[in-house]
Design brief:
Elements (H helix, E strand, L loop, with lengths): L1 H24 L6 H23 L4 H7 L1 H34 L3 H11 L3 H18 L1 H4 L4 H8 L1 H16 L1 H4 L2 H33 L1 E8 L4 E7 L13 E6 L9 E4 L8 E7 L3 H4 L9 E8 L12 E6 L3 H10 L4 E6 L9 H11 L2 E5 L10 H7 L7 E6 L1 H13 L7 E5 H4 L1
Parallel strand pairs: 7-8, 7-10, 8-9, 10-11
Antiparallel strand pairs: 1-2, 1-6, 2-5, 3-4, 3-6
Helix pairs in contact: 1-2, 2-4, 2-9, 2-11, 4-5, 4-6, 5-6, 6-9
Membrane topology: Multi-pass membrane protein
InterPro entries: FAD-bd_FR_type, Fe3_Rdtase_TM_dom, FNR_nucleotide-bd, MRET, OxRdtase_FAD/NAD-bd, Riboflavin_synthase-like_b-brl
Keywords: 2Fe-2S, FAD, Flavoprotein, Iron, Iron-sulfur, Membrane, Metal-binding, Oxidoreductase, Transmembrane, Transmembrane helix
């Protein structure tokens, strides 16, 4: 809660600072459209810097907020940024066109040819539009993760182009050295956060731990577990319930990063991930050779025991969403109930392990099978299985549809929000 409040406060404070510098610089424009366009551009650039902070994957924020929630914020901020920059472009072009009596297209061409940085801004906006289109739900579901990730990287080029454009021609910054200094500091913090979280820290950890594949174990026709060892793994700050972005450094896969949860609690000597075969990239996992070098980014996620509030726990997993839940079961103390929702018995990955672990820990294990309708985790069904559900911490991980339905059920059963911890399988499974 402190981390979330801190991020909101940080954004609100910077909105206030940017607005102050904008007003201090004076409007100095021939019409209201240009004024609105400049203000929209400032807010858009501020959102872009905030967006960088959200995707920096800084451990302090991630452990307290969670990659799942940060990714959700990133999505909403991204679309807000897109609309803000579109508003900036439209207002500026039509504002100058009104002042010069030129058509909007001719005015845009004239601005690009005569004013420094405008052409860079046009290219930046085009890149952001492309990223926005491929990030829409319809397109995202039809793109391979690797393709979507590669296109998304062009956002960084757009950031550089937009920043140089704004510093070069933004009246707020050309009119005040104080405003320009503030803007450089703001963007310096944002870019440094990305450099540390996305590059420096992963490189340092991988050089230190030198991860390698030690075993590849098929769990079923469509699921495989990968065992990984390395140096000083007892110093790797990984917890049960977290995930990594894994790169297996083979000829055809070194550039592909996929998010997979730990399916066993870290023990200081090895890590284990369990993945469902869902495409060419994951299918290749079956053929990894022992000794393959691994580059891992992480650990990520707040789906851990760090946020427990009650002595007893309910774990609810769907499909391969069982992987982080299985790791949590290994680490949890107190009385635990685990509900595993699958279509058929054959889909119950790692079930034998779960049964043995539940028996050893005195936990209750319920395997719930059958089609999605009727809902076998509806309020009356869940209350029958776990009568004291409102007095437990509840961890939910599974496909987005199942997770959404279970969260709705928990609200109807009166489970307090601080006791609910969810990870959507679409991100971390």
């Amino acid at each position: 809660m402190v981390a979330r409040t801190g991020l909101y406060t940080l954004l609100a404070a910077n909105v206030g600072v940017v607005t102050f510098f904008f007003v201090q610089a004076g409007f100095g424009a021939s019409n209201a459209l240009i004024v609105l366009g400049r203000l929209a551009g400032l807010y858009g650039a501020l959102l872009m810097a905030f967006q960088l902070l959200l995707v920096a994957r800084l451990p302090w924020f991630d452990r307290r907020i969670g990659m799942d929630r940060l990714t959700s914020w990133h999505r909403w901020v991204g679309f807000s940024l897109l609309w803000m920059l579109l508003a900036h472009a439209v207002f500026i072009v039509f504002g100058y066109a009104q002042a010069s009596s030129m058509g909007p297209v001719d005015q845009l061409v004239d601005l690009a040819e005569t004013i420094e940085g405008v052409l860079r801004a046009v290219v930046a906006l085009a890149l952001i539009i492309v990223v926005g289109v491929v990030s829409a739900r319809y397109a995202r579901r039809r793109l391979a993760y690797e393709t979507w990730h590669f296109i998304h990287l062009y956002t960084y080029l757009a950031v550089v182009l937009a920043f140089t454009h704004q510093v070069a021609v933004g009246t707020t910054f050309t009119a005040s050295s104080t405003a320009k200094t503030y803007w450089y500091i703001l963007w310096g913090v944002a870019l440094t956060s990305v450099f540390v979280g996305r590059l420096a820290l992963p490189l340092w950890r991988n050089l230190r731990h030198r991860l390698r594949v030690t075993a590849v174990v098929p769990e079923s026709d469509h699921v495989v577990s990968i065992y990984i060892s390395g140096r000083d793994l007892d110093r790797l700050p990984a917890r049960a319930g977290q995930f990594f972005l894994w790169r297996f450094l083979t000829k055809g896969r070194w550039w592909q990063a996929n998010p997979f949860s730990l399916s066993a609690a870290p023990d200081g000597t090895q890590l284990r991930l369990t993945a469902k075969i869902a495409g060419d990239g994951t299918a290749a996992l079956r053929h990894l050779k022992v000794g393959t070098r691994v580059f891992a980014e992480g650990p990520y996620g707040a789906f851990t025991t760090l946020h427990r509030t009650q002595p007893d726990t309910l774990l609810i997993a769907g499909g391969v969403g069982i992987t982080p839940v299985r790791a949590l079961l290994e680490e949890l103390h107190g009385h635990v109930v685990l509900i595993y929702r699958v279509a058929t018995d054959r889909d119950a990955v790692l079930y034998d392990e779960l049964a043995q672990l539940a028996h050893a820990k005195g936990a209750q294990l319920h395997l719930v099978t059958g089609p999605a309708a009727p809902d076998k985790l509806a309020p009356h069904e869940l209350a029958r299985l776990v009568p004291d559900v409102a007095d437990r911490d509840v961890y939910v991980c599974g496909p987005p549809g199942m997770t959404t339905a279970v969260l709705r059920t928990l609200r109807e059963l009166g489970v307090p929000k601080p006791q609910i911890h969810a990870e959507r399988f679409s991100l971390a499974g």
